[in-house]
TrEMBL record:
PANTHER family: CHROMOSOME 16, WHOLE GENOME SHOTGUN SEQUENCE, DUF262 DOMAIN-CONTAINING PROTEIN. Residues 102-241 form the GmrSD restriction endonucleases N-terminal domain. This is GmrSD restriction endonucleases N-terminal domain-containing protein. It comes from the Eukaryota. Residues 27-76 are annotated as: Disordered.
Length: 386
């Protein structure tokens, strides 16, 4: 028996008078068992790929140094152009003041270093010791978004500005051991030689060109994080495929029903778990028949398609999600997407099946069917007792 067969027999009506074709609910609830489902969103014509540009785009990176050496990485389905160059701290400070260096991309986490950590970086530079390279991503408007090294570059430029970003108070050095005589000093208190050493210190920058494909950007984001905490797939995906679609996922993650179902113990905004679940629903709903392992590539394809969605299409997805989760909650309540009564953990494959199924029904079509559907789910999801 499958849940979908049960659903059809319980309702004896298909949503919007169409034939309902949905994945089987059995096979140990394995996403690999998902079968073809092509009742998708309004059709979206595939766009032909634009011709690749031969030269590094003439944005900020090119303006900073016309002769910057570039590297092009051509991998299957990936395209990334990277320019590497060294620039003094003062040049990056000037770019930030002109609004051409963005230290706060919408997809990035906030500044988390304390003042002692930031002070030690200033000390490192004054001692002439090496600092890890910084990655930036050139946007279509020529602006540079920080990719890796946000804590470092924010610390340095904030010290030059004189304000510590976490509390907006005067930035004075603290916690220094080697140059302990500088504790308590702001940038303006340093000697002229020390200020010059700080501003002229060359930082190694890698500039990811704006014509790099988002899938290549995703791979780079996954590999270059140097802050000691690797990005998970959705964190990297949000940055690589940032668009109004990703912003929609952020908004839907705060849906009150989803928050009830997930519970505070499971929700982790920084890990992006809920946003990946929502993206997974949209991908399964519209392109289930195209699913192939690994799941990460399947979700990248969905994120890539989402970049070109119109405002109207984004609204359609919002309505679709809200209808699906509302219908599921009306039947299973806070126990939605759980394998059995003894488990409080959301099962992703249950999420796929229930969300894709009940997104296609109007609430009135489910009236009076709740108990029967709950019983059918118990029979399918609970292993038979020997």
């Amino acid at each position: 028996m499958t849940l979908l067969r049960s659903l059809g027999s319980r309702l004896r009506v298909t949503p919007d008078e169409t034939v309902l074709r949905v994945p089987k609910f059995a096979r140990e609830l394995n996403p690999d068992a998902l079968q073809e489902e092509q009742d998708s969103y309004p059709s979206q014509e595939p766009e032909s790929e634009q011709d690749e540009q031969d030269d590094f785009p003439r944005g900020v990176g090119a303006r900073l140094h016309e002769e910057s050496p570039g590297t092009s990485y051509d991998l299957p389905h990936l395209r990334a152009n990277v320019v590497q160059q060294r620039y003094p701290v003062s040049a990056l400070h000037a770019l930030k003041q002109r609004g051409l260096l963005n230290l706060e991309p919408e997809y990035q986490r906030g500044f988390v270093w304390d003042k002692a950590s930031s002070s030690r970086l200033v000390e490192t530079i004054l001692l002439g010791l090496p600092v890890p390279e910084i990655w930036v991503h050139e946007q279509a408007d020529g602006r540079l978004d920080i990719v890796d090294g946000k804590q470092r570059i924010t610390s340095l430029l904030s010290y030059l500005d004189g304000i510590f970003p976490r509390n907006q108070q005067k930035f004075i050095l603290e916690g220094l051991e080697t140059l302990s005589q500088l504790n308590g000093q702001a940038n303006e208190d340093l000697s002229e030689r020390e200020q010059q050493s700080l501003q002229s210190y060359p930082l190694s920058l890698r500039i990811l060109a704006q014509d790099s494909g988002p899938k290549a950007v995703f791979e780079i984001y996954k590999r270059i994080n140097s802050g000691g905490e690797n990005l998970n797939d959705q964190q990297a995906r949000k940055a690589a495929f940032w668009s109004p679609y990703m912003r929609l996922l952020n908004e839907l993650a705060d849906d009150p029903i989803l928050m009830k179902v997930r519970g505070s113990s499971e929700r982790d905004d920084e890990q992006e778990t809920d946003r990946e679940l929502i993206l997974r629903f949209f991908a399964m709903y519209g392109h289930m028949g195209e699913y192939r392992m690994p799941l990460s590539n399947f979700l990248n394809d969905e994120a890539d398609r989402g970049i070109s969605l119109s405002t109207e299409q984004l609204q359609q997805r919002r309505v679709l999600f809200e209808r699906a989760i509302s219908n599921v909650y009306a039947i299973w309540g806070n126990g939605s997407f759980q394998k059995d009564d003894s488990s409080s953990k959301l099962e992703p494959s249950l999420w796929d099946t229930l969300m894709c199924t009940f997104s296609r029904y109007k609430p009135e079509q489910l009236n009076g069917k709740g108990e029967a559907l709950r019983e059918d789910l118990r029979k399918v999801a609970t292993p038979a007792q020997k």
